[in-house]
C-alpha cells in the first residue's frame, strides 16, 4: 500500500475518533451546565474528514440530534467529502 494512502487512512481514523470523543465531551458538559464546545468545531472536524465520527457520536450520545444543521449538515459534508476522496483515489490508481 502506498504511504500516502496509509497516511490518509491514519488521518481519517484519528479525526473520526476525535469527532466521536468531541460529542461525548460536549454532551457531558451540556448535562452539567458547563461551558460548551462551539458548534463551529464540530463542522470543522467534519470538514477535515471526521464527519462519520461526529455523526456516530451524535447518535451514540443522543447529542445535537434535534438540530437540523447537524442532522443534515454533518452527513452532507461527509458524503461530499468521501465521494471526493474516492474519486481522487480512483484517479491515482487508474
Question: How many individual helices?
Answer: 3
Low-confidence stretches: none
- Total beta-strand segments: 0
Shape: elongated
Helices and strands: which structural class?
mainly alpha
Share in helix: over 70%
Tell me the Rg in angstroms.
15 Å
Please give the alpha-carbon distance between the first and last residues: 15 Å
Strand content: under 5%
Overall residue-averaged pLDDT value = 91
Largest sheet: none
Q: What is the chain-wise order of helices and strands?
A: HHH
What would your notes on this structure say?
The protein has 94 residues and is an all-alpha fold. It has helices spanning 3-31, 39-60, 68-93. The protein contains three helices and no strands. It starts with a helix and ends with a helix. The mean pLDDT is 91.
Amino acid at each position: 500500500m502506498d504511504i500516502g494512502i496509509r497516511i490518509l487512512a491514519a488521518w481519517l481514523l484519528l479525526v473520526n475518533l476525535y469527532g466521536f470523543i468531541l460529542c461525548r465531551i460536549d454532551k457531558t458538559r451540556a448535562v452539567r451546565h458547563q461551558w460548551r464546545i462551539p458548534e463551529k468545531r464540530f463542522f470543522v472536524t467534519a470538514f477535515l474528514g471526521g464527519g462519520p465520527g461526529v455523526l456516530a457520536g451524535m447518535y451514540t450520545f443522543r447529542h445535537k440530534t434535534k438540530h437540523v444543521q447537524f442532522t443534515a449538515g454533518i452527513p452532507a459534508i461527509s458524503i461530499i467529502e468521501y465521494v471526493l476522496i474516492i474519486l481522487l483515489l480512483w484517479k491515482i490508481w487508474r
